[in-house]
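Bit of a strange request maybe. I'm writing a small parser for structure token strings and I need a real example to test against, not something I typed by hand. Could someone generate the tokens for this chain?
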Amino acid sequence: MIRVFARRIALGKGHGAGEAPRGKSRRWQQPLRIAIAVLVATSAVYGVTRAAETTEVPAIDRLLVTELKDLKLTAVRKEVNLEELRRIDPDYANAYRVGRSTIMLKEPDKFRMDARAGFIKFEYVISGPRRVMRAPLIRQIDEIGVDPGKRQGPLEVGLVTPGCLRGYEVAQVARTQVGDRPAYQYRLTYAHDHERYELVWIDAERKHILKRKLWTKFQGEYKLELTFLKPKQFGDIWIPTRVEVRNARGALAGVTEQSDITVNGGLDDKLFEL
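Reply from user aminoacidic:
Good idea to test on real output. This should exercise your parser:
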């Protein structure tokens, strides 16, 4: 659906808002295609079947950041290697062209991103099982249900909350270490498609994500790896301030810094209206 919509944009046609003026269409096509790419660049999530606790690895419930009510931060792309990003996916590379964005989360199921692609300002909002992308001449609403591949949320910024696990079946994997940090590893399988899954490593003490791998269906090879670094403490919550992405070759493809972080500031529900 998103790809079809992007094709409409490439032809200079809006969706649900009429056609763009022909003389101006080419000026906004590329920035808006980049904005659309943000919708499909990363996986995130929704629903959970929890595995029983083992002696080595606790059930993931023990590591959930239950203190988080809402979160606001600024995400800034600091390093971008488009060639290596394209090895992940062309849409993922396009999403990294958005240099700065404001991200807002509210538990259990609300997400918002405000950003610009060129001179085009757009808003991307998830509320429950629906999402909307708004930009000049464009307003697209999708029913996304509980499909993790169509959602974004706390996992993108390095946190695991009760709401963000809907749509996954969770299994304990191992007690391990990432760098100098003790960690627990979990497998998050898409409940509606067991060929798709992610692996996450959660800091055993600070409860933020240390590493996250997203796997493809083909040849059992992972598609990308996200490393969450330089965490800062906000009350009882630790939030990473640097996110590195690597492709299946292990090449560093991009770096994002998370700053201007506000935790539990009382975000208005109106911000997440569709």
